[in-house]
């Protein structure tokens, strides 16, 4: 057991908790033992991390709520979508906190693709454009920077 307070794992397990960015496939992302050291699991982990921000960006710009819904149903739908978006964003943040550079790059590329597909003007259809000032059912994610 490590008593340094850094949370390092036993050396015989093959990986440790990093406190600086590193390259390598021997990393734990989100869950203990995942992706592990088996072949292809790191690539699968990067794909999952890539898809998380694409989904977050879709939730940022999607239009699911219909005008004919009542205020209560609209509010409940927006609340559920908001909770899912925040939960996915926190999972993504925790994945990036593995300090693995591959995970960071996958997250950035996922956000970029998601914004390209759902937020940029490249794939927007003019006739389906929402009213001025609103892009989706949810308010934009904010950063207290």
TrEMBL record:
The chain crosses the membrane at residues 40-61, 73-93, 99-118. GO terms for cellular component: plasma membrane. It holds the Pfam family Ctr. InterPro entries: Cop_transporter (IPR007274). Keywords: Copper, Copper transport, Ion transport, Membrane, Transmembrane, Transmembrane helix, Transport. Its main location: membrane. It is a multi-pass membrane protein. It is found in: Membrane. GO terms for molecular function: copper ion transmembrane transporter activity. Belongs to the copper transporter (Ctr) (TC 1.A.56) family. SLC31A subfamily. PANTHER family: COPPER TRANSPORTER 3 (PTHR12483:SF117), SOLUTE CARRIER FAMILY 31 COPPER TRANSPORTERS (PTHR12483). This is Copper transport protein. It comes from Phoenix dactylifera (Date palm). The gene is LOC120108612.
